[in-house]
Amino acid sequence: MDDNWVLQVKDVSKAYGDNPVLNKVNLSLKRGEIHALVGENGAGKSTLMNILFGMPVIHETGGFTGEVWLKGRKSEIKSPKDAMDAGIGMVHQEFMLLPGFSVAENVKLNREPTKPNWFSKVAGPKFETINLHKMGYDTRQALDRIEIGVDEWLPLMGMPVGHRQFIEIAREIDKTDLSLIVLDEPTAVLTETESSRLLSALNKLAGSGIGVLFISHRLDEVFEIADTITVLRDGEVICTVPKHEARVENIAEMMVGRKISNSKATQPGRTTGNGNILEIRNLSVDMPGEYVNGVDLNVRKGEILGIGGLAGHGKLGIANGLMGLCHSAGTVMCDSQEIPLNDSRAALDAGLVFLSEDRRGVGLLLDESIEDNIALASVVSRNKFVKKVGPLPISVEDGKSIREHAREMISLLDIKCTGPQQSVRRLSGGNQQKVCVAKAITMEPEVLLVSEPTRGIDVGAKERVLSVIKRLNAEKGITVVMTSSELAELRSMCDRIAIMYNGKIHGILSPDAPDAEFGFCMAGGGGVPGD
Amino acid sequence: MKEGVQVKEGLRVKEPLRVKEQLHVKELLRRNAVPALFLCMCVLGVLISGQNIRYIAQELISRLARNWFLVLSLIIPVTAGLGLNFAIVLGAMAGQVGLIVATHCKLPGLVGLITAVVLSIPIAILLGISAGHVLNKARGREMITSMMLGFFANGLYLLVFLFMVGTVFPIDNPEIVLDTGVGLRGTIELKYCKYALDNLLRIKVLGINIPVGSFAVVIALCFGMRWLYKTKLGQELRAVGQDMGVASVAGINVDRTRVIAMVLSTVLAAIGQVIFLQNMGTINTFNSHQQIGTVAIASLLVGGASVTSATVGQGLIGTLLFQLLFIVSPAAGQRLMGNAQIGEFFRVFIGYGIIAVALLIHSWGRKSSLESASRQAMMKEEAKTTGSM
Ligand SMILES: Nc1ncnc2c1ncn2[C@@H]1O[C@H](COP(=O)(O)OP(=O)(O)OP(=O)(O)O)[C@@H](O)[C@H]1O
Ligand SMILES: [Mg+2]
Q: What is the C-alpha to C-alpha distance for residues A47 and B241, in angstroms, rounded to an integer?
């Protein structure tokens, strides 16, 4: 009987220093079951996953109490290696991939297929030569199983987050003798169609008897796929229910501990200025996996322009290209002045600010404090928060106003933290994302480019983040170009939505256009002429 | 399925070729700015010095034969993320110990050389293991720690060879021990195995003596390194070098891998020092090992390597340029300023200067990441170069 359980978590508690994060958590998972774990940002979900996978961060901070049983036996997981040996696979919330390695090298990291040679027979298996052919072949198989067409020998550097997500999943799928797979927000950066592709892959995995434990802030997909749902709030299990007994509203309420109004942000009749603030002509961007190939686009002053489309079609490339993060060609005029491309400094000086979809790689300095992360970019490039030192011709950072501003942002965006001086590494994923948002809006740019602004942010906080952006647009007249894989989000925010297909703008739709039209457009059909 | 196909198409649009071509020239120049600069200096130096080309060539050939191996011993720790390994001094000491013993036993020629290598390897392994463990305790401060390790080991070395020889170790051999009977001589002549490797096969091309034996060993090492990076261990070294966190989450034993990198480097440095000294013909007992650290590191940097990325090619080219500068700068100084000493100063200045600059750029690069954009660009550079091993 007992060995039907793949995983049993018994009374697990964990504190980071004085800060209790998990409190006597119990959770069990059967063979072939898909178990969803939901909860607010900072509820402790990733911490629980990290415990299961023996992540160093847990053991460096004093370990945990309680027991973890695998397949009916008590197990001691002290390191990721132990976890892997025990048949646990994990897709981390923050990608665990090496930028300088190719896709195949990442998928097969430390599981490389090797061939013995005469030297390895003497000196040991570490000296076996890597079988590149098999490595590529296996990787191709794994990528094909989740139907992603990315070239397995492309370097990971510069790959869009959507692809990285699939590559992480491919790595886990490629593992044989897996008995439990843990996925921490695997769908946060995926469009609906891609998530459903992923979800069906998960269903197949579960069908083969593997237990699936996954975390998501998208309740609709939780309800689509999960057999059982566990709600975590402030480190405690509020309830565990089979899906057929659960209702979306109840779950959402249990997550935040209060009723949440599902008011849809409606568009007040706004008038956007008539001039164009950005005129993009024939823009090509060399972003691996998100090539942009000759885009013409006008962004009107004061509008919120959405950019949507499936992954791999270039929606993320535009902002990265404009900001000089990826090599690009073409002409871009900002307020009728040409911005030199491939020059981040020039883009910043022209008043463009970018909230990147890649918060760990680009957005944040993990070991700096929240306040520094929020303010320093503004100090450097916008000359904000500086004060003169007496009569001297030098100015220094104004620590007090930085602190004050950070406090404001913390309460505005509801960042869960111990204070403005906490280092960003110690925040939960969703709260790190909020710091990124705070940093971008602090810059008060002419044009704000935001990519996946609500990545990993829970249902309650999402509205808040979006309305902050919207208010910035309405009150300060900041033009916003928002790239998102969530169509619903784009439709609730934008004045116009450009859909990318095959590296080009395939059509520009109004947010009230019917669903079918969006779907059609993303798949490359029809298309409405822009502007 | 249909969608998979579409994504593929999306990927296949690698159209912005125009972009790539434009970049190529610029990129190439930027990435090779340092060696290009030194190439210019060398050409100028050669012209100004007015030295005989054949003399320069002969001098260069023998310097390359003795230095290349040592410089290449630095590459593994760089790719494993340990930075510039100032602790190759330890390896060099091990090599010297081997040679001193071989000389003491009057082992002739190749036999002496091989004995020296065989003796020095276990010492180097031990030193490498201890250095690796120390560096694991000093993560993020590897380079300064390895430098301190060099000083510390030098102290021990002095203790052993100045005071313990003749007292603790009853060695009484006037060829290597001071007349007082305690302590080694400041210079020891390698009577028995001088040029043992170089003379293995010498050929003369256009009147220039080429020690084929030494070059053969270097070539073997190049192939060996290439091969190493095709093995499981090589992959682990590179993974650890890129991101220790990701590597350990993938189940790689990061600490062990770093120790292995140090051991390999130290052993190679030991062999390298033996090759170096058989060509020199004498050991400066208390100095030889100390110089090689800075010279080798400067050579590697001149080739365009950085604290986070280095390739065999950079090591080879860097040594060539740096040694060439060494050869011509005294004469160039003499011609230009009427003082050979100036050229001498100049080359010492270059040696230390380039190391200082590399370290500065490294720490500055870490700190200057305030603006996300520049940070991304920087990371990209790093990854590009580390990936190209
Ligand atoms: N390394 C750490 N050191 C100290 N505190 C930490 C650390 N990591 C997380 N925390 C704290 O633990 C709490 C739970 O974080 P966790 O990452 O588990 O949240 P989460 O449920 O995954 O949230 P999200 O949905 O935002 O990813 C947070 O309050 C966070 O500040
Ligand atoms: Mg999390």
A: 27
Give Cα A297 distance to the centre of its chain: 26
Q: Which of B379, B294, B318 is nearest to B84 (CA)?
A: B294
Higher-scoring residue by pLDDT: B49, B265: B265
Q: A2: buried, middle or exposed (CB in 10 Å: 19+, 13-18, 0-12)? A: exposed
* pLDDT tens digits, A397-434: 778 888 888 999 999 888 888 888 888 888 888 899 89
Residue keyed to tokens 């402790």: A44
Nearest CA to ligand 1 atom 18: A44
Backbone angles phi, psi at A463, to 5 degrees: -55, -45
Cα separation, B291 vs B89, whole angstroms: 8
Residue nearest to atom 4 of ligand 1 (CA): A426
Is A325 in contact with B377 (Cβ distance < 8 A)?
yes
Nearest ligand, CA A184: 2
* Closest residue in A to B11 (Cα–Cα): A289
CB-based burial label for A138 (10 Å; 0-12, 13-18, 19+): buried
Q: Calculate how close chain B gets to A167, using CA atoms only, in Å.
A: 14
A197/B3 touch (CB, cutoff 8 Å), yes or no: yes
Tokens of A448: 């704000």
Each residue's pLDDT tens digit, B182-221: 777 878 887 777 777 777 777 777 878 888 888 999 999 9
Bridge partners for A305 per DSSP: A481, A496
Q: Closest Cα to atom 28, ligand 1: which residue?
A: A42
Q: Give the angle A94-B78-B348 at the CA atoms, nearest 5°.
A: 140
The closest alpha carbon to A376, from A363, A366, A385, A367, belongs to: A385
Domain boundaries, chain B: 53-288, 291-305+317-383
How many angstroms away from the CA of A90 is the closest CA of chain B? 10
Which stretches does DSSP call E strand in A392-434? Answer: 395-397
Is the distance from CB of A119 to CB of A127 less than 8 angstroms?
yes
**What digits encode the pLDDT tens for the residues B123-169?**
999 999 999 999 998 887 888 888 888 888 888 888 888 888 777 77
Q: Which residues of A touch B382 (CB under 8 A)?
A: 100
In the stretch 369-428 of chain A, residues with CB closer than 8 A to chain B read 376-377, 380-381
Query: Which residues of chain B neighbour A313 with C-beta distances below 8 Å?
Result: 6-7, 10
- The C-alpha atoms of residue B126 and residue B315 are separated, in whole angstroms, by 26
pLDDT digit string (tens) for B215-257? 999 999 999 999 999 999 999 999 999 888 899 989 899 999 9
Domains of chain A, each with CATH number or no CATH? 1-86+179-260 (3.40.50.300), 99-175 (no CATH), 261-351+445-531 (3.40.50.300), 364-440 (no CATH)
User: What CA–CA distances, in Å, run from B143 to A10, A141, A361, B88, B255?
Assistant: 45, 42, 25, 11, 16
> In angstroms, what CA-CA distances link B65 with A88, B61, B197, B323?
52, 6, 10, 11
Residue A47 CA to ligand 1 center (angstroms) comes to 6
Quickly tell me which residue has 């910043």 as its tokens: A348
- Beta carbons of A164 and A147 less than 8 angstroms apart: no
Write out the DSSP string of B191-231.
TTTTTTTGGGSEEEETTEEEEHHHHHHHHHHHHHHHHHTTB
A43 in Cβ contact with A19 (< 8 Å) = no
Ligand closest to Cα of A461 equals 1
Across the A:B interface, residue pairs with CB atoms under 8 Å apart total 191
- Ligand lying nearest the CA atom of residue A48: 1
Q: How far is CA B190 from the centre of its chain?
A: 24
Q: How much is the pTM?
A: 0.80
